[in-house]
Inverse folding.
């Protein structure tokens, strides 16, 4: 009996998890994974750790090595670009980037996990030397080399999202003069509401970051190499520019074949199937079903890609999957120098984009009982909750402190996924120990505050 041929496009989180699931669940599969890049498979979310010398080696910052899969039915090919899906033949056209040879590879099932690519600003000077992007192995090693160079004194970061914040912190810790620019009015403004971004902005400024919001970049200035970043109101000396101004779906090769939305994100049904028979799509290049938004939105997270891969492979050989994909919450975390935060589900920005009406509550308190002084480990903690204004169903939340309270984000994610209400969170049975928290735990207190209850003082 011949083995079922499964082809996977992309070696990042979704591709890696697909191989693991296929090997765990089936004996009669032949797996071929194609990766366009020449490194399998760099974990870009580990870039800041690498830049700050907090990893074993740059070659270890990856999801897996091809040598992790020595099974005879697994074929992992780097430097191979999938250019086209030949629907009638049920093959993909694949070009070997080193030899330029193109072959057609048959498949019984095709999993697309092609991911995203970073955006480069459409302004003059973008091709000057020392204007970098920040994604992938090659860019990470180039940035590292520049941060180690005494010739680089002024670093300008374009984009104040997660990647931009990480680049700014790594550059500042490397002893550089750092300017952080964004067209929006607040750092991390698409992830957190203003009550929390005000705290983050203060932290950035206290650490010596030149924070410039509402900055409209018009040009990268220089002769051969960049020398300045020009905006509509100012010019910033720049020996190195790191662009972190968002991403775009890596789906140009699918146009006219696979259904995409007007921004290039792959459309799938409730079973993560594309419009093509036997072709599935997962990961950053897709629209993912958000439980709190109750609709499909772009959510570029490793956790999403892995959950989607697990679901797809579980049902990949069923004529009709026995259940639809349950959806995701979308949770992430970040440290910004001394501050640490986590967020789950929706916030004001994402809720507006999804057309969801929300109410919100901001709560700030001490982590432990009042008799524990600040200098003994009793910092302030901020909690923001987002919920349906009528039913009180939890739709999102965030937690921020100088103390690592990010595990609370997993509690929020589970509460949102399970459809809990403020009332449920206010009564939830959590532990108490004054070395860690208060008699009512942090999220109890935040929910009680959102419900307008009397403030618990001890």
């Amino acid at each position: 009996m011949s083995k079922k041929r499964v082809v996977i496009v992309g070696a990042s989180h979704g591709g890696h998890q697909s191989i693991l699931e296929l090997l765990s669940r089936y004996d009669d599969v032949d797996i071929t994974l194609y990766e366009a890049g020449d490194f399998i498979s760099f974990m870009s979310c580990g870039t800041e750790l690498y830049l700050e010398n907090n990893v074993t080696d740059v070659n270890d910052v990856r999801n897996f090595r091809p040598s992790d899969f020595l099974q005879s039915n697994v074929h992992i090919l780097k430097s191979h670009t999938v250019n086209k899906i030949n629907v009638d033949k049920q093959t993909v056209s694949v070009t070997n980037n080193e030899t330029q040879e193109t072959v057609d590879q048959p498949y019984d099932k095709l999993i697309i996990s092609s991911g995203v690519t970073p955006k480069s600003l459409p302004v003059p000077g973008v091709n000057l030397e020392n204007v970098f992007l920040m994604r992938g192995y090659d860019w990470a090693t180039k940035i590292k080399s520049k941060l180690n160079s005494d010739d680089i004194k002024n670093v300008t970061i374009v984009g104040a999202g997660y990647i931009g914040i990480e680049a700014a912190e790594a550059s500042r810790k490397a002893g550089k003069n750092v300017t952080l620019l964004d067209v929006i009015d607040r750092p991390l403004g698409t992830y957190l509401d203003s009550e929390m971004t005000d705290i983050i902005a203060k932290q950035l400024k206290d650490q010596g970051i030149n924070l410039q919001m509402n900055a409209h970049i018009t040009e990268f200035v220089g002769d051969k190499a960049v020398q300045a970043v020009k905006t509509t109101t100012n010019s910033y000396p720049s020996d190195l520019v790191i662009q972190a101004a968002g991403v775009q779906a890596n789906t140009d090769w699918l146009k006219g074949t696979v259904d995409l939305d007007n921004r290039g994100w792959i459309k799938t049904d409730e079973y993560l199937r594309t419009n093509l028979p036997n072709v599935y799509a997962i990961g950053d290049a897709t629209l993912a079903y958000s439980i709190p938004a109750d609709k499909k939105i772009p959510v570029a997270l490793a956790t999403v890609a892995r959950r989607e891969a697990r679901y797809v492979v579980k049902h990949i050989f069923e004529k009709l999957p026995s259940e639809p994909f349950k959806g995701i919450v979308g949770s992430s975390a970040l440290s910004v120098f001394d501050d640490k935060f986590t967020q789950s589900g929706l916030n004001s920005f994402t809720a507006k984009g999804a057309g969801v009406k929300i109410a919100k509550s901001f709560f700030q308190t001490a982590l432990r009982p009042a008799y524990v002084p600040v200098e003994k480990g009793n910092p302030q903690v901020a909690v923001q909750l987002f919920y349906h204004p009528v039913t009180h169903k939890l739709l999102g939340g965030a937690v921020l402190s100088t103390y690592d309270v990010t595990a609370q984000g997993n509690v929020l994610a589970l509460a949102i996924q399970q459809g809990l209400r403020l009332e449920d969170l206010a009564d939830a049975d959590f532990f108490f120990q004054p070395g860690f928290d208060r008699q009512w735990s942090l999220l109890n207190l935040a929910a009680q505050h959102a419900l307008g209850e009397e403030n618990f003082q001890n």
Notes: Residues 302-315 form the longest helix (14 residues).
